[in-house]
Amino acid sequence: MTKKQIDGKHNENDKQQDLARATTPPGEVLTDNMGHVVSDDQNSLKAGERGPTLLEDHFLREKLHHFDHERIPERIVHARGSGAHGYFQLNESLADYTTAEILTEVGVQTPVFVRLSTVAGFRGSVDTPRDVRGFATRFYTKQGNWDLVGNNIPVFFIQDAIKFPDFVHAVKPEPHHEMPQASSAHDTLWDFISLTPESMHTIMWAMSDRTLPRSLDTMDGFGVHTFRLINASGKATFVKYHWKAVRGAHSQVWDEAMKTQAADNDHHRRMMWETIDQGGTLEWDFGVQLFTEEQAAEWDFDVLDPTKIVPEDLVPVRIVGRMVLNRNPDNFFAETEQVAFMPSNIVPGMDFSEDPLLQGRNFSYLDTQLSRLGSPNWQALPINRSLAPVHNNQRDGHMRHEINPGRVSYFPNSLGGNKPAHDPERGFRSHPVMASGQKLRVRPESFSDHYGQAKLFWNSLTPIEREHVCKALQFELSKVETRHVRVAMLEHLEQIHPLLASQVALALGEQPRADQTAKLGGTKDSPEETALLATADAPTTASGGLQKTSGLSQLEQPQSAKGRMVAILCGDGVDASAVKNLQQALEKQGAKGEVVGPHLGDLGGVEARKTISNTHPVLFDAVYALNGMVAGEPLAGNADAQTFIAEAYKHYKPIGAQGEGQKLVDNAPCPDLKKDATLGVLIDDLDGFVQALGQHRYWNRVTGKAKA
Ligand code: HDE
Asked: Which of 10, 85, 145, 151 is catalytic?
């Protein structure tokens, strides 16, 4: 049995079993694609030992033919992604709102495949640029596939699908020189944004910490659009879907994200792979915001507008289930690359809303699969096929896999007993939404407030998060070469908050508004700056009367050490029992300690699997210093190890040290570093260190006093 065997966790209709039918075990003997045993596929057939290759060589031709056609077009957006299998389990029934079995059958584990992606970069780009992340989930339900194709931020840049090609052309690398790769910091994107006021709320999210996730399982997910749920008596309720990271949503800081790209292009993908490979899981709570059409009609924003959230202070998120990812794909191409999500994959008991972005997506995803996967039979690929049986009169096309017996492929028919038959009871029925009116190419007036929720977002962030937004805008806009684009953006920022606009103006060499001239502190991360950004909330509109709301700041997140990676810095002759104690203490909390030594292998009873020079502090959540020697000198004197500590401090990460390790902390080239437990530097305090991991970052290092 391979690892595709049933693990007892999933329901009867197990996708694992289904995929196993398509999985070819490695063979003993080499054959060609028609099953002929091959005697030699390393030398082509030639006329004489040194002669030309013969066209007759059908083995050569077949091998090259297949190779020549191995590539398929990558996704036009979300090209770079990583996938994993798992299950979804409902813990609270939503039967009052829907007939969808996946949302009513408590305790059933439904197989899922999830693909998490960046948006702008190509398939071979990096994992940690500043970018929105795709969060696409396929539920293989008993009623057919349900795809929830969302993002890690709850709003989108445009309000109408017809603008999507323009937006994507603007954000992708510029067409004349194909630069920059996987980055939004360039003229065409900001030109488009500056001319598209509806993008202001989303651009605030894009410039926030949300777009620098620490790992794939420390980001939340959002269905973005308003959908409908339909109950047994045909009543519709509006719903917004949420994924809340069980480990909490946490981010990297910008300097760290940039360095991560250099240290490991595949950092997020590798973390997800290794976590699962080592028996761990990635987990999210599934939540819904439920509200009626009547409630929605009361609010000063339109729930059909995808640039708006429904603030959690208006409608709390009700957690009703959990998703667990626990199995890596067997083959990246067959599963992660060929998976084809579609927002139009919904099941009875659900329906769309009239959100014009969603309506356009329902066309676009179906359409794109044809150019990416090459045939209308892409739905029969193992990763795409439904666990619910498929019967209809669709036939033929390139690469047809099914063999449909009989002569009936039409309806109505008498020759086949009028089958497959319609089933009005079990079948999908659109909710009878009233729709009438003139044909108009317009945007509704109710979509016209573009700054209200941008302000709500700004107000709801903590000072340190505001500072990060401010710095991101300073960085991104300073990369824009065209001055009028930069200036146009300042005018928009002015509408969100004059202080924000002024701070960005200063960095761009523009004149800040006269009453907002307070300078940035001068030094990076200065107390003055943070205090400045703590001031003055903006008045909001389009937010249901709220000034700020919960659910937006990442610093409200749960504190847990689970999944945290700790670098244990040590040298030859390290105190092996100290390493083991630390590792055990970490494991107890679900964290992991990786020994980082001067070389690979044995350090004296402890094995180093990473070295000080082959890894980097940005790849860890915290550092713990112990003792030992490096090339005959004490670890504390090693410059690279000292820098390791300094970098971790600079990125606000917990630092621990024990015994001799303390000297390494003393020697770190970081004048601000204080051995102060309240700043997350814990000396000879193992328990305190493990607890500190839960806090993720010590933002109070910025101010020394101001609270995050
Ligand atoms: Fe997508 N989007 N999108 N998008 N999107 C695609 O579909 C599109 C939008 C999202 O891991 C493409 O199969 C249009 C919003 C994710 O395979 C394409 C519009 C949200 C993924 C496409 C949007 C998303 C895609 C490219 C505006 C969050 C990756 C390949 C009307 C709610 C799925 C593909 C995966 C992928 C079109 C806007 C999320 C071209 C036309 C809003 C997570 O069809």
From this structure: 151
